[in-house]
Amino acid sequence: MSPRFLDEIAAALEEHGLILRGGFVFDDCDAAPPGPSGAGARSVLLVGQAGAAPWPHFLRWRDRQPADLVNPLDTWSRQVIGAVADKFGARAVSPSDKPWMPFQQWAMRAEALKPSPLGILMHPEYGLWHAYRGALLFEVEIPIQAPRTSNHLCDACVGKPCLKSCPVSAYSPSGFAYEECLAHVRGPHGEACRNLGCLDRNACPVGVEYRYPAEVQAFHMASFAKLD
Q1: Which residue range or ranges hold the 4Fe-4S ferredoxin-type domain (predicted)?
Q2: pLDDT category, 4, cuts 50, 70, 90?
């Protein structure tokens, strides 16, 4: 394995606006998923984004696809990450693959992050404006630096604006009111949410320089509410 193995993977992902989001070596007690040959994986690298960096790359690809393509962002992510996996001898998996992979648990382990009150992992730099698009599973141990732990910013946030901006109080300490949120977004008073994204998420003051542009938020909201 090249000493620059991780750098080479990162460079291949960067061509598409994606980044490595950490990783780890599975413990013997972990129920590791299969790697590329079907044997148990030994290591996993998380792939994702900070801010909306992949958006221009995705749009250029989208322009060449059928207009009625279902789940285009998932399809693009699978193609890009799958090609990188093939190049570096890994198996690519996606958060939307079935059976579901424990991406949330992997991400917390890989980057030492904790969930915000909205359920999105709070990143000390990116805030809530990041995502995981897939993972690379290897059947060899990849030397991965352990994540640096930091204070969970949500613990120090007294005002919790992310729980006070939604018109229907979809997020609360008791959980996410999915049906109420969906009805509001689809309804006559949900225009701001449809066009600008989740108001609770936008209210968080952390990582605002990474906030997705309105068109990106509208795309994700339309996908959530099945508005297309």
Answers
A1: 145-176
A2: very high
35-74 per-position pLDDT tens digit: 999 999 999 999 999 999 999 999 999 999 999 999 999 9
3 has a pLDDT exceeding 70: no
**What does the angle CA 98 – CA 147 – CA 77 come to, to the nearest 5 degrees?**
35
Gyration radius of the chain over CA positions = 18
| pLDDT tens digits, 130-184 | 999 999 999 999 999 889 888 999 999 999 999 999 999 999 888 899 999 999 9
Backbone φ, ψ for residue 217 (5° rounding):
-65, -40
Q: Is there a contact between 174 and 184 (Cβ–Cβ < 8 Å)?
A: no
Mean pLDDT of the chain: 95
Torsion angle of C-alpha atoms 149, 93, 10, 13, degrees rounded to 10: -130
Positive or negative: CA dihedral 184, 185, 188, 193: positive
For residues 37 and 54, give the distance between their C-alpha atoms in angstroms, rounded to a whole number: 30
Q: Is residue 227 predicted with pLDDT exceeding 90? A: no
Query: Where is 46: in which H helix or E strand?
Result: strand 43-50
Residue located via tokens 């990106």: 216
* DSSP annotation string for 99-168: SPP-HHHHHHHHH--EE-TTSSEEBTTTBT-EEEEEEEEESS----PPPPP---HHHH-SS-GGGT--TT
C-alpha 114/C-alpha 7 separation (Å) is 26
